Task: inverse folding
């Protein structure tokens, strides 16, 4: 398993850097409103160069060794009207799903597990909280945010299956360090 490294920078002079909170999106590499990713990446590069020279007063927090909490949902003859609950969001199996909180209940447990994973990943309430993948009749749900906080994500199933536990497990905060740059003001 690869280690994740998270870097968070807080500068005393973010306004003068010209940085925008723009996500890097390979589908839209040249947004006309923002000047494209290449402009953003150049500004980000310039910011880090100046940061290294001490032009800006900042603190960089580097975290390594974080892991995401996860849990599994195992289906066994899952049927219409059976439910899975994640962090209080109820997802219901249906032969004819019509809402984002419903998923297909027909086709066997492998098909239903794939439909459940898709439902979890496309649910607006769960967006930013968890992600899911399926393999056979098992759905693995992982907290999006790494660390101990994910161990609070709850899992439940109404019938025809089981969950690995009432809450996800395995989330670890990892080790953090702070690097200060520039002169204190």
Result:
């Amino acid at each position: 398993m690869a280690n994740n490294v998270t870097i968070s920078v807080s500068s005393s002079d973010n306004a003068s850097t010209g940085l925008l909170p723009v996500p890097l999106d390979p589908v839209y590499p040249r947004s006309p409103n923002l000047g494209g990713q290449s402009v953003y990446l150049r500004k980000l590069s310039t910011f880090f160069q100046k940061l290294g020279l001490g032009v800006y007063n900042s603190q960089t927090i580097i975290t390594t060794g974080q892991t995401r909490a996860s849990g599994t949902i195992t289906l066994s003859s899952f049927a219409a009207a059976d439910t899975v609950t994640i962090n209080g969001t109820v997802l219901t199996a249906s032969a004819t799903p019509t809402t984002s909180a419903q998923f297909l209940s027909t086709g066997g447990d492998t098909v239903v597990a794939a439909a459940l994973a898709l439902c979890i990943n496309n649910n607006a309430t769960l967006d930013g909280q968890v992600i899911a993948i399926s393999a056979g009749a098992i759905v693995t749900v992982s907290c999006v945010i790494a660390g101990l906080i994910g161990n609070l994500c709850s899992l439940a199933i109404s019938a025809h299956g089981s969950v690995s536990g009432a809450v996800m497990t395995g989330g670890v905060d990892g080790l953090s360090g702070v690097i200060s740059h520039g002169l204190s003001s």
About this structure: Confidence is low (pLDDT under 50) at residues 1-6, 11-34. The helical segments are 14-17, 36-53, 109-122.
